[in-house]
Amino acid sequence: VWDYNTGECHRVLTGHKSHVNCLNFSGSKLVTGGGDGIVHAWDLDTGELKGTLSGHTDEVLSLRYDGVVAMSGSFDSTIRIWSTRAMKCLRTLHGHRNWVTGLQFD
User: Fold this and answer.
1) Are β-strands 48-54 and 38-43 bridged in parallel, bridged antiparallel, or unpaired?
2) Which of 73, 70, 88, 77 is nearest to 31 (CA)?
3) Which of 71, 69, 67, 76 is nearest to 35 (CA)?
4) Which end of the chain has the smaller Cβ count within 10 Å, N or C?
5) Under a CB-based contact definition with an 8 Å cutoff, are residues 53 and 89 in contact?
6) C-beta separation of 56 from 80 below 8 A
7) Tell me: the pLDDT tens digits for 3-17?
8) What is the pLDDT of residues 63-79, one digit of tens each?
């Protein structure tokens, strides 16, 4: 985690077993999605890994997060909706014929 004004690295978050493809913030909370098919939830104030969300069968390509609910899109052509409080998948959306590279919800 860098300070964009100074370029100083404040913290290194370690958790993914592969590259990170996407991330999304909500205040001091962060979710990251990786080539390992995993979504990680982080507390940026402490650097603590709050939870690991698994279920995708391929790389996570896109994320949206409002601080409570995360939505992830994947190479596996699904969208998963996650509770970051309960650290579980609430729903899997099927129907895309190809990768899910962008998401938005309100």
Assistant:
1) antiparallel
2) 70
3) 76
4) C
5) yes
6) yes
7) 999 999 999 999 999
8) 999 999 999 999 999 99
